[in-house]
Amino acid sequence: MSQPLFNPFKDLIFDEHFCFLSGALTNENITVFPQWLMDHFKLGDERIEMMDKAKTYNYSDLKLPCTSEVKIAFEALDVKVQAAYKNGFEGMASLDEELLFQWSGRMVYGLLYYEMTYERDRLLKRGEEFELSSALKERFGHFHLMLQSLIEPITFVGKKPWTIAVFPLKYSADIFSYRDDAINLMLQFGVNGFGFIACLQDNGVIGEKQKEILDKMEGHVLHPVQFEELYARFHYSDYILQYKPNYKVESRDTGITIEVDTDGKEPIFGFWDENIFAQLLSNYWQVYGIEREDILKFQKPPLSFLENPFNENFINPETIALPF
Question: Which domain holds residue 277?
């Protein structure tokens, strides 16, 4: 490919007249969250918070500028995911991970886009310049490049740049659970039938760290309280991960290849602090009335609904008496 692809993070271009994915001029847009998903769960008028908790939007008001080409590509992707969704866990688990990356990446990038524009406008009102560190520009730029695989001839070689875990999950009908960390490019998505967790730029490192518990879960339908604990483990693992993902990006006449470059360096995780983890987990378990003090008790192992703390056996979801 002779021309480099659009990278909005190079010059911080977030404008309603430039397609968020291709950079082409446009007057069209697409919703951040798939329309069929918002219609199914009646999310349109629900509110979603920005990172600083000071700003909220209606789900239906979150829109990204895009060209017809990009809109058609995402609509075609939505058709595939919606068909899989109707078949529950089996359907979603059968999808190629790259499709799930693109589908979930649209939502995470959309929220990241709004975080960028919100912060830019906030600083402009104060007469300050909007800037990003070079590390964030590089990280977000790589994520955006990978998302362009939906419309450009981009191939992932070898190890995938993400961790995506799909598993059976039991919720009451019509409950939709969504949580994201747009800055760290993560999301949690759960409904009746399945859940999935995506770390969209970890090079599979967090999935490897959590492999033992993921293996223990096989064959079980998770209780929601286990789902929340699992995401907390992924989220905290990302927090203590001391590792900079590197990529070999090569442009050829036939397209772009992206390969994970380990550079001979092993990923390092910092100290797992049970106090910090318990505080994070209690935020996710608030709906059950479980507080940090219930998770950490003097001379007792930390509370877990995933593993028995005495023998590390997986806890059968059917033995959990909490509502779902």
Answer: 29-319
